[in-house]
## 1
Amino acid sequence: MKQLLILTILVLLSLPLVAGEWTQYYFRFELLDKSELQNLTRIVSIDNVKGNWVYAYANDSEWAEFRKLGYNTQILPDPASLYPHKTSGSVNEVKAWDTYPTYDAYVSMMNGFASDYPGLCQIINVGTTANGRAILVAKISDNVATEEKEPEVLLTSTMHGDETTGWMLMLRLIDTLLSQYGTNPRLTNIVNSMELYIGPNTNPDGTYYGGNNTVSNARRYNANGVDLNRNYPNYDGSLNQGAIQPETQALMDFANAHSFVFGANYHGGAEVVNYPWDYTYTRHPDDAWFLSSSLVYASNAQANGPSGYFTGISSNGVTNGADWYSIAGGRQDWMNYTRNGREVTIECSNTKMPAASTMPNYWNYNYEAMLSYLELALDGVHGTVVDAWGNPLAATISISGHDNTYSMVETDATHGDFYRYLQPGTYTLTVTTPGYDPQNVQVTVTAGQMTPITVVFGEIDQPQEISLNAGWNLISLNVVPASYVTEDIFQGISGLIQIKNAAYSHMPSMAAHFNTLGNLAVNEGYWVNMSAPATLSVDGNPVDASATPISLKAGWNLVSYLPATAKATATALSSISPYLQQVDYLGNSPATMEPGKGYWVKVSQACTLTYPE
């Protein structure tokens, strides 16, 4: 193995990192075989890969394990120590966007957004950190107190406590969306069209490791010395490293309580949009969409940034996660394979913790990219799955031959809405919901446009209305009633004298034991004698006419007419045309057959009548 080189002077560089009960090591090591990263990522926290050099973090136990491997290693200065970090406890000073807030100022600023814009913003404390700090998320929407039928979008940052650029971008994005709502049409449309959740700092224990009034000693890990971006369950439910941390559990619970369909998680230390997967080289079924949508962010960042911005990892500013370096237990992958969302990781500054005075520059570099990326959530298929009464249904939406378990999407329970982001083209969506047969729906996706669809399962029972004249009528049913009992079907009909078919009869005026027609059937016609006109209304599901064959004997048969619409007699009886001799309705030969009527049909031999669809 390669000789481990740790010089005394380099060890001294790590001393400012020692705080509390564990030490943070930041180092690089030379690696000639990139395949070894698969195992190394489970020992230390890989941060970047540049050529043959791998940059990583470790706590005490990870460092001890790594040293046994004998790699050529160099301890590096703590990233948080590279620049002076101005910190202020004044919200007004922080809103100049060139100073970092103290913890109390950060909390005050977040709560101030809700108090200043109560109709647009709510602040949610999704949980507490290992040291008891609040993990705050701002919900921004035009009807913020109501869950609307809109895409739920999640932006978060700084799960690595020493990566602070995204933190400041998210704070300023919240402020800009709220303060310019109603005056800036583009920002107003974003707020009106989605439910946007923004968590600027999801690891405040790491950021404020040196105390609530400074960020100068910020660390990557949480207070327990755990990298939160290696702490999420793997796709099979197994754990990557130790116990689930409070911060991880809080964000998991929050995600599980919502239907986040789109989002990004901001980091620092590089400049690139990293899309799934991180844990495997196998491509996501929507790899082409992830690539094109990531390019929207990266190209806008390049266009508005200085020369070389967003080009350090790849020339186009985009990379597949595993192609860069593979990790397990990452937040991005968990959101995508467990929650079936569409989340990417955005590394927005090569310097993990730039001087606060440079934050306005990063805002200028990323502003257009952030808005353009958010607007992608308004494209694609925006669907709703409901029953015949408009009630939302729990459904799964997949594309045959395209999707797998981790890419199909589900409806939100409140409104039955779903969102499927796809490359332009025509697709067949298969919508599956318990209690119904699946439906296939063809959609065409156009770049830059929303494709709205509504999928309805079931039908509302429509009563069959049959007009009865005084005297004799020939009738039939084409719905399936709740009860076939003759008295139930004709309940409430006044003026009824007699009902009969070719063999049996029912007369309300007769004693029950004389009435032989106890039940009606949908495949027969009936004579009905009335003393006065009336309307017979029968509730039930429509009969599937083409799936309900009627057996006929040679000679005359009194049959029902099952289709929902009138058809020419020749068309309706086409299935028995070789044997058909005569059709009669009240002494006439009808040219058209109609719902609600019964017909005498004469055939030359026994056969089966099947009505067309």
Note: Residues 287-304 form the longest helix (18 residues).
## 2
Amino acid sequence: MRVMPEIVERERVVIRIAGDSGDGMQLAGGRFTDATAAFGNDLATAPDYPAEVRAPAGTLHGVSAFQIHFASRDILTPGDRPNVLVAMNPAALKANVDALESGSTIVVNDDAFNKRGLAKAGYDSNPLEDGSLAEFRVHRLPMTSMTLKAAEDIEGVSSRDAARAKNLFALGVLSWMYARPVAVTEEWIERKFAKREAILAANLAAFHAGYNFGETTELLDIQYTVKPAALPPGSYRNIDGTTATALGLLAASVRSGLPLFLASYPITPASELLHELARHRGLGVQVIQAEDEIAAANMALGAAFGGQLGVTATSGPGMDLKAETIGLAVALELPMLIIDVQRAGPSTGMPTKPEAADLLMALHGRHGESPLPVIAAATPAHCFDAALEAVRLAVDYRTPVILLSDAFLANSSEPWLIPGVEDLPRIDPRFALEPNLDGDFLPYLRDERLARPWAVPGTSGLAHRIGGLEKEDGTGNISYEPRNHARMTSLRAEKVKGIARDIPPLEVDGEDGAELLVLGWGSSYGPIRAGVRRVRERGGKVASAHLVHLNPLPANTGEVLRSYRRVLVAETNMGQLAQIIRAEFLIDAESFTKLEGTPLLVAELEHEILERL
């Protein structure tokens, strides 16, 4: 008779599931995340994809991983180091074991640790037997053979098909270990494979076999519980940054009445936005996969000229190619949204790895004086608000806007409190409908925001010229007159600068007596806030602030920065925001940077802060 497992309560847990890119690690992680969200924990996830489309199976280059941090309190990041590693083969173990702290739990697919698998991963000996894992709690589970056994009596399922379900066996084991609800996963399997009865039965059998194995085996002697988190009341859904961006664009389309038009060229990690919006064509969304990056940008700008919400999305290399059209949008003064899902560069770089090094390009990466607003999302859920705000500024001020996200935000997920439609801002396109000066239409006659009229082609009496040549103030006629060029350049710059009056002030999460301010932007938000929290728990006094609007900066930015003796800027580049802060405000900002293709870690921020206190 089996001895009942010990029940251990945890406040928080970090799990990493790793295997070949064809082993379904992202699927298993996503299903565990859904079950965790349904249970009511706060959570944050971080998928880690290999850059190769299909690296050789069993090699380090082909390892795919998914990390989830869930807790009974609010959390801010996917966690620095996992408490539990599920390794489906030797390569997954070798690629991730160094991330573990002593005493962590390792669950391995024992069947994969054969001579061939060990050799592919570069092991000279079996780490499960040579004592190299002595500091960890290691559970050797025969996942492949147990999955095959679970599906052996299902008609129409080959051994190869059955073996593919070993990720769901692992998911079943984890679901038992952490007392996750099984109905969420069962319902997903039934929906996913509804048209393939044999495959559905095999996957359900594998999942149940894993869960039952946890219940009956003595190899797993501890079951962990993590109580639900006390989140603010409301309706929640788990959401990643890509989906949040797509929903933000849809909300902006609804609240402005502008048809949404997205033109993009496939590029990692921005392609998923193209795919996501293509699923919403029933809502009037138009999606085009263009033949190249500049064509996509031209299409989006053409849609804006035609009175639609013109959007194009890309990553760093695509931004290089779109620069000419973005400059044209600045000259035309039309509302257009350019989304840059940043990745590690330069050139092809590391396409699936996060980095936030496109800030200076977003601000200055065009020829001539061509300022435009730049906004950066802070968390996966915040991508919704950032997209909505970017559209608002583009429409209100008749300007292209760059929205910065990154690979981490796009792929990671967290609970999102679904807002009420009535709480979303209205966006008024204010289309020009009639002549605006003594019976004539002047396309560059500006309003109090310095925004020009937006006249949809075909509107009676409002015909006007567009193009990249310099315009005469007011009339929009081609002009080479020196003073006019200086005036138009100044007007475009003042229009963008004036947005500072229309955005929220920079908020400080501070405490009395703090002399150090930690400043961030983009996906550094979570690690900075969590690092500051840790330092305060140790008695340190520190403040933090986070920039969402990067051009123009909030009007009180200089005042905030000068209120502290020291300013530390943390970012995943070589110090681009720190350079801007030094140049703009003549403040000796200190810089903490990281360029490893991985997010900032909380422990790193904690160390950097403590070093300065």
Note: The chain has a mean pLDDT of 95.
